[in-house]
Structures are given as structure tokens and as C-alpha cells.
Give the backbone structure.
Amino acid sequence: MRLFRLLKIQYVAFQFGLDEFVLSHSRLRFLRVIVKTLTFWRNLDKPRGERLRLALATLGPIFVKFGQMLSTRRDILPQDIADQLAKLQDQVPPFASDLVFTILEKEYGQKVEEVFFKFDSTPIASASVAQVHLAVLHDGTEVAVKILRPNLAEVIAHDIALMDTGAWLAEALWSDGKRLKLRQVVSEFARHLDDELDLMREAANCSQLRRNFLDSPLLLVPEVYWDYCRNSVMVMERVKGIPISHVDELIAQGTDIPQLARVGVEIFFTQVFRDGYFHADMHPGNIFVGKDGRYIAVDFGIMGTLSDEDKNYLAQNFLAFFRRDYARVAQAHVEAGWAPKDTRVDDFESAIRAVCEPIFDKPLKEISFGRVLLQLFQASRQFNVEIQPQLVLLQKTLLNIEGLGRDLDPNLDLWKTAKPFLENWMSEQIGLRGFASRVQKEAPNWAVILPEFPRLVHQMLSENRNHELEKRMTDLVIEEKRQNRLLALIAILLAGLLAWQIFQ
């Protein structure tokens, strides 16, 4: 099956003329005549960006997600390709209405009109994994109904298998393969894709994020209507807003665009460092802006989590980076185990400085993060820095946020916006407030343990006494056995001496 899927990928690539992206290189142009002769049957009248979008949509959800991620990187993509890939965010071709009603009736065991007072069979959004329809409940509540695309699991399984095979080959044949932990990265990606194929999990993700930002002036998360949620169907509050990519409409509404960009950065760092739980698919198709200026999040299929240890080391790295303390950045990598213990910190510091120093005091419009990441990758390879699979989603989300900020306000100073937030967070973690917060957090546990403390101490002392007594008894037995063996040896020697005297 993997072979058939690989052949289909190659066929689709040739069908839509994606080979021109490779053959445009000067060293490979001689092959264009040969390929054109062999593929005379192709119709390549459409622009290259549109053909790329159609090819990714044809190949399925994993390729669509790849296109969505690329669409946010207008700093490294030509304008025509970026504009077409942006349509993958919410304009993937929908599946047929009769399938929609079949899925709903199978999940609810009732006719659609018995579940919903009104149901719009035309989707308002269609993405790689699901599509969304508007409906009204019998009590008049307006809702959005998300329905999973049919027969996705098999296609995704094949694609993941191909990715895993590719990762295995890369680790086996490429010197950097093992350091990058490519198979672990694929495994992490697959785990989150599995979550996306269960809309009950997505509903739980949405509910958790809503609790984290309940009554927040920054972010609105819709309410989940659990009585109507199933594995293939999710029903939530209908939220109204303008897509964040429609900047002209936002300006007409009176939205402060530079402030909106700064709020986006604050929301991201709040999710990461306050909660350790973040929306990991923050492309423009999943974000709207309400009349009150709040962000509105939708699509909660991919959420990232961070441990307290990850948050602490990340915060130290970010803060040291913003303060241009490259020695601390290098040292933090060694302390976290991301770089080998024998790393020369001064050499690592110099390499990081060479990459990062040129981009400070510049607005986003003058920074190519694609180039910066490439240079950091080269430096990490030089010092054998291990890729952390649990941080891959965070890196992806950070790229999305940076791309979004670039679109909203090219003059945004990412460093100045994020630095005060991180400094405040660090003071809460390691200062007096941090100590008081941890004491308060652990107080319920202490309330349970303290009344039992005398009994636990007595039990420990008793166990120690019993252990000591048992040890002493064991030692006595061993000593007795040793003495018995010694007496037996003496008796044998005396008997030998006596026999020798007699026979003399």
C-alpha cells in the first residue's frame, strides 16, 4: 500500500506540473524538454500557484496542512504562491451534502431535522480534516456544526507510514538524521493527527482553552454544546467576526491593527508560559476578530503542551536572547541537555551571537526568519544540539505567529513586545511571588500530609529498627556459621595430630 500511495503522489505531482519547481534550477533545465515530451498529456494552462494548491488538496490532509503552514511565510514565498496557498486555510473543496446528512443521521440515530431546528447544507468553511455548517437548535441557539471528512483515517495512515519510512532512511543514511530525531518528530505529528480525527477530543481541547481564557479581554473561545457532540461531529457556539487576514475590513471596523498584532504576541506567550497549553494551528483561517477587538479562535484539533521544566528552560532562553546574553543561551542549552555536556560554551556563544545579533532592533519586515532559522540549524548541527520533539509544535506555532504579525504590522517589534511579559512571568516563577504561589499550590497536599506526619515518622523509625534488628540477627547467624566452620576445622586438625602421634 505504501508503494501505491507513493506512486499516486508522484502521479499527482506530474499531473499538476509540480516538476517545474525542481526543474527551474539552472543545473536541471536540460531535463525540462525530456519531461515535457513524456508528459504531453498534461494541461498546465493554470498558474503555478493554483496548480500547487490543487495538487496539495488532491493529496489529502497532511499535504493541505503543509500548504497552510507555508502560506503564512510570505517572507520566503513568491506572492502568487502565497496567495493561492492561503486558500487552503478554509477553502478546501467540500464533500457532498448527501454525505453530510448520512454522517449526521448515523451519529445521532435520528433525522437531521429532529436534531436541529434549522441546518444549512452549504458549508461556511471547508478545511483539510472537516467542514463547518451553520445550524439552529430547537431552543433558538445559533451553533456551528463541525463534521469530520469521511474515510480520512486510511489515507492519513498511509501518508504517516511513508513519512516514517522516509525518516528512518534519513536517520540511517544522513549524518544529522539521528540528532534531529526525525522518527520521533513524525511520531509526535502522527499523535496530534490522531487527535484531530476524534472531534470529542477537539471539543475537550476547546473547553479547556475556554476555561483558561474565560472572561479574558484578549481571546474569545466558543462554548461547546456537549449533548450534541460525537466522535465525528462537534457542535459549538456560533461566533461572529472578521477573518484576521481581511485587514481592510478590520480597519473599516475601527480595529487598531498595530495593537491587534501586539495582542497576538501576548496571547501566544500567555498560552505557552502561563498555561503550558497552546493552540498549535494558529494560521489565519483559524482566527477571527470580534467587534470588541478580541481574537476569536476556532479549530482546536491540534493543541500543544509543555512541562514546567520545558517552560522554565524556554523562558530562560527567550529572556537571555532578548537581553542579548548569548552566553546564558548557550549555557541553558547545556543545562537542559539539549547540547552535549562537553560543549565549549564560549564557542557556542559566539556562533549564536553571529546569527542573532544582526536581527535586533529591526522590525519584522526587515527580518527573514527563514534565513535566521537556517543559520541556527547550521549552528546547532556544528555543536550537536539535539532537536526536542515535544517542541516541534511550538516552533511551528511561533512561525505562524511571526507570519501573522508580519501581515498585520510589518513594523511590529517582536522583542520589545514579548520581553516585559517574559520578565513578569520569570519573576512570578523564581521571585517572592513565585515562592508564595508554589506554597499556595502545594497547601492542599500539605493539609493531607501534615496530620499523618507523626504516624509516618513512627512507621519509618519502626521500619528502621526492624531493619536494624533483622540485620543484627543475620549477622549473628553468619558469625555463628563462621565460628562453627572454624571449630570443625580445628577439630579436624587436632584429630590429624593425634593420629600422627599414635602411629609414631
In short: The chain has a mean pLDDT of 78.
